[in-house]
Amino acid sequence: MIAKKAIGLPLKGLRLAIKSGDTLLQTASTQVTRLKRLLDQQMDNTQAQPTAVRGYLNDAHAGERDVSMSETVDIRELEFKKAPINLIPAAVLIATPIAAAVITPWYLMTHKVSLPVWGAFGFFMTWTGISITAGYHRLLSHRAYKAHPVVKNFLLLGSTLAVQGSAFDWCSGHRTHHRHVDDVMDDPYSAKRGFWFSHIGWMLRNYPSGNFDYKNIPDLTKDKVLQIQHKYYGLWVIAANVGVVAAVGWLLGDVWGTLVLAGLLRLVLTHHFTFFINSLCHMFGTRPYTDTNTARDNFFLALFTWGEGYHNFHHFFQYDYRNGVKWWQYDPTKWLIAGLAKLGLASDLRTVDDATIKHAEVQMQFKNAHKHLDTVTAGGIDIPHALQNFQERIKHEYEAFTQTVEEWQALKAKAVEMKKTEFADRLHEVDDKLKHEYAKIEEKIIEHNNNLKVAFRSIGHKQHAA
Ligand SMILES: [Zn+2]
Ligand SMILES: [Zn+2]
Q1: Segment 14-65, tens digit of pLDDT
Q2: How far, in Å, from the CA of 52 to the mean position of ligand 2?
Q3: Poorest-confidence range of 130-134, 178-182, 399-403, 460-464?
Q4: How far does residue 102's CA lie from ligand 2's centre (Å)?
Q5: With CB atoms 3.0 to 4.6 Å apart as the test, which of 115, 169, 278, 445 could cross-link to 5 if both were Cys?
């Protein structure tokens, strides 16, 4: 999520440092790419142009869609294989970890670092990391809450410190990730292309899936502050990472120590902690809410990612301001947003109702139960008595659950209808009644959940119970 242009960020920043207006390098690189394509086409002696084949992205090419689907896929895959290197992002992403690995231990062995400098390291780690999760991710990409301008700008500056691309690039890429999750062609950091690609590889080359057109962020492109951040991104990156960090170092009386720890080391750690969300959070962990994509819930990854480790929940309910939805789940970003709301600095926190969340969990439990039964009965041999009982219980419970869901849907339809037809002065009364009926449905869903837990326990499968 972070990043394609996470890296594109420094790229653009440096462009700006050379010339305001990010067109120079972009134009040159476009020309080189075009020339390369032209040469490739001549050499391959093929009539189909990659741009035309990718016409699914653009209706202007509708007339050229006579290439078969398999040829399209093949040619798009070829584009992936031939993707040119993203020079500046690749240089930054490779050079900074090496520099941090060499300079940090050397500096710590040869210099004494004061406690306040370590404090600055902790502060910048927190500011940068939580700005990505509470700012770029939950506020801007998902609109999960509204923030006071002071909060928004503080998080925007922290996100700029993270060197993960402008808000336009980051959020456009992230919305594409959610929309096309796991698609090898259209998910910018598809986990289906493996750990390396989803972690960092997707930023090292100019892959077709990484070219964002910003059509999916109309709400952000009209934001004046974000426009300025995008336009002068490179300058902002340098000002924040060198100017602000060095200024803090000067105040603490140790400019170089602060630059090494709160600048370089903090930058590299924050990069990879964020990258974990795209890679490891799509590989390791549980799937309590859906198994229709690779996203996982993982407590250990939540520790490194300011609560974003509950990625299975997030992919299923992306507009919820919480990722760790249970009160006990480690999600400092959620706590920060809730705290800001208490102070009047955040509002309109969006949440999915408990019944919907529980419904998703119970559905996954049924799915697991059916999968388990399919496996044990596949051989056609007699199944043990305990499993027969389990099978009966699941069947019975599933029928009851289907009934509850039908009641629930009917209630929702009724609520919509009533709100349309009732007089305004009776809405309160109606809402109270509906609230009571909703509460009863929720109780029933929780009961199904508990019954399933008991059923799973009877065959020794505690792990399936949510
Ligand atoms: Zn994801
Ligand atoms: Zn997201």
Answers
A1: 333 333 333 333 433 444 444 444 444 444 433 333 333 333 333 444 444 4
A2: 31
A3: 460-464
A4: 34
A5: 169
Nearest-ligand number for the alpha carbon of 171 = 2
Residue 179 neighbours by CB distance under 10 Å? 11
Q: Average pLDDT, stretch 255-277?
A: 96
Q: How far is the CA of 319 from the centre of ligand 2 (A)?
A: 8
Tokens of 92: 């930054």
Separation of CA 295 and ligand 1 centre (Å): 6
Phi–psi pair at 412, nearest 5 degrees: -65, -45
* d(CA 194, ligand 1 centre) in Å: 13
Q: What is the pTM of this model?
A: 0.76
CA of 38 to the centre of ligand 1 (A): 35
- 3-state helix vs strand vs coil in the chain, percent to 5: 70, 0, 25
Contacts 24+ apart (CB under 8 A), 446-453: 446/358, 448/362, 448/397, 448/400, 448/401, 448/404, 449/358, 449/361, 449/362, 449/365, 451/393, 451/397, 452/362, 452/365, 452/366, 452/369, 452/394, 452/397
Distance 178 CA to ligand 2 centre (A): 7
